[in-house]
Amino acid sequence: MPSCSPDCCLLHAVEVVRVFSEDGTCKMVEILADMTARDFCQLLIYKSHCVDDNSWTLVEHHPHLGLERCLEDHELVVQIQSTMTSESKFLFRKNYARYEFFKNPVNFFPEQMVAWCQQSDGSIPKSELLQNLLNVNSCPEIQGSLYVKEAGKKSWKKLFVCLRRSGLYCSTKGTSKEPRHLQGISDLEDSNIYSLISCKKLYNSPTDFGFCIKPRKVLTDIKELRFLCAEDEQTRTCWMTAFRLLKYGMLLYQNYRIPQQKTLHTNFSTPRSVSENCLVAMDFSGQTGRVIENPLEAQSAAVEEGHAWRKRSSRMNVLGNQSPLHPSTLSTVIHRTQPWFHGRIPREESHKIIRQQGLVDGLFLLRDSQSNPKAFVLTLCHHQKIKHFQILPCEDDGQTFFSLDDGNTKFTDLIQLVEFYQLNKGVLPCKLKYHCIRVAL
């Protein structure tokens, strides 16, 4: 019998991977050893009946160190799992911001942090200079002040830092970038960059916007980690995005461009679901039923059915028939079936969810108000800042409506309100575009 080559053995090797969702549910999945993070997410999307919108990611989470990162699409899941401790775990989560910098790099790279913009004579637009960051043949340099945790100590020191293709350096003399004044902090080749969770509590950081550079070979030794801290979220995002670009170059752009419909080596097809609850949209207006394939048509059909449901419920009560829910009751509970409604969570939790799923314009969720039991709150991201808008009930001709602009625009329920602001900005800084969601595996 002919012997298998090492590559053949790798191809057929099967590993068990445990992955968690945001609600704490867990799934054990058998995968081949050469499965990438992208393909693994595709498998979870299929098994969990989620909508494939190119935003699902696999997160490497280390609770004992207080850090996490999204795996890049090309990384091998089994290989990453081999570098994780028993306390570490994978999370299945949305992240709308992973490739957002390809669409609008100006929002991700403040010009004062990009060395090329500093050296420009103004003949080339700064937006064009920033676009060069996405060119694998170029070598962009990011610079600015960061708090750096001193090795083996609890104290942090504010230093001038620059990020180049060769690594991350700090200056020993003010803002000088002369080679004799630059001291290496970390390389890029054998390290990954992570967001810090609860960094003030765990590491006594001066701000909440911490990140960490962790060598792949390091499991638990905190002394080998390099902890850094930025002044704000945009600055942290800039450093972390530049690190990814310099480390992976054109691979990131290829990951961004690869169509989601690619055929996987595991034999399963993309589900035909067009809604987060995985119900197949049907059209029964003709003589026979028809599956609605077009997602836009399906969404329109769902909206029409929702309006018809409200009308039927209202008409049944007018006629004196028994209705499962009175219209006033229906308007106050129908939103609880929606994936964008997160119930009675505190303000801090809503911030956490928004940050985890990507600080992109239009990312939102709705929640119960803690200060007013009859009101709700729209939590929305705009320009990498999180804002809150209170939705108040108001009475008109004996019927309850909801409004977030003091009654100027009124809606019978929160679903109508969300649908309106997905199409119209109104009093909001931007339209509602992406909703935060948590799914059970």
From TrEMBL:
<keyword id="KW-0597">Phosphoprotein</keyword>
<keyword id="KW-0963">Cytoplasm</keyword>
<dbReference type="Pfam" id="PF21989">
    <property type="entry name" value="RA_2"/>
</dbReference>
<dbReference type="InterPro" id="IPR035037">
    <property type="entry name" value="Grb10_SH2"/>
</dbReference>
<dbReference type="GO" id="GO:0046627">
    <property type="term" value="P:negative regulation of insulin receptor signaling pathway"/>
</dbReference>
<dbReference type="InterPro" id="IPR036860">
    <property type="entry name" value="SH2_dom_sf"/>
</dbReference>
<dbReference type="InterPro" id="IPR000159">
    <property type="entry name" value="RA_dom"/>
</dbReference>
<protein>
    <recommendedName>
        <fullName>Growth factor receptor bound protein 10</fullName>
    </recommendedName>
</protein>
<dbReference type="InterPro" id="IPR015042">
    <property type="entry name" value="BPS-dom"/>
</dbReference>
<feature type="domain" description="SH2">
    <location>
        <begin position="340"/>
        <end position="436"/>
    </location>
</feature>
<dbReference type="InterPro" id="IPR011993">
    <property type="entry name" value="PH-like_dom_sf"/>
</dbReference>
<dbReference type="InterPro" id="IPR039665">
    <property type="entry name" value="PH_APBB1IP"/>
</dbReference>
<dbReference type="GO" id="GO:0005158">
    <property type="term" value="F:insulin receptor binding"/>
</dbReference>
<dbReference type="GO" id="GO:0030178">
    <property type="term" value="P:negative regulation of Wnt signaling pathway"/>
</dbReference>
<keyword id="KW-0727">SH2 domain</keyword>
<dbReference type="InterPro" id="IPR000980">
    <property type="entry name" value="SH2"/>
</dbReference>
<dbReference type="Pfam" id="PF00169">
    <property type="entry name" value="PH"/>
</dbReference>
<dbReference type="InterPro" id="IPR029071">
    <property type="entry name" value="Ubiquitin-like_domsf"/>
</dbReference>
<dbReference type="Pfam" id="PF00017">
    <property type="entry name" value="SH2"/>
</dbReference>
<comment type="similarity">
    <text>Belongs to the GRB7/10/14 family.</text>
</comment>
<dbReference type="InterPro" id="IPR039664">
    <property type="entry name" value="GRB/APBB1IP"/>
</dbReference>
<feature type="domain" description="PH">
    <location>
        <begin position="139"/>
        <end position="248"/>
    </location>
</feature>
<dbReference type="GO" id="GO:0008286">
    <property type="term" value="P:insulin receptor signaling pathway"/>
</dbReference>
<dbReference type="Pfam" id="PF08947">
    <property type="entry name" value="BPS"/>
</dbReference>
<dbReference type="GO" id="GO:0005737">
    <property type="term" value="C:cytoplasm"/>
</dbReference>
<feature type="domain" description="Ras-associating">
    <location>
        <begin position="13"/>
        <end position="97"/>
    </location>
</feature>
<dbReference type="InterPro" id="IPR001849">
    <property type="entry name" value="PH_domain"/>
</dbReference>
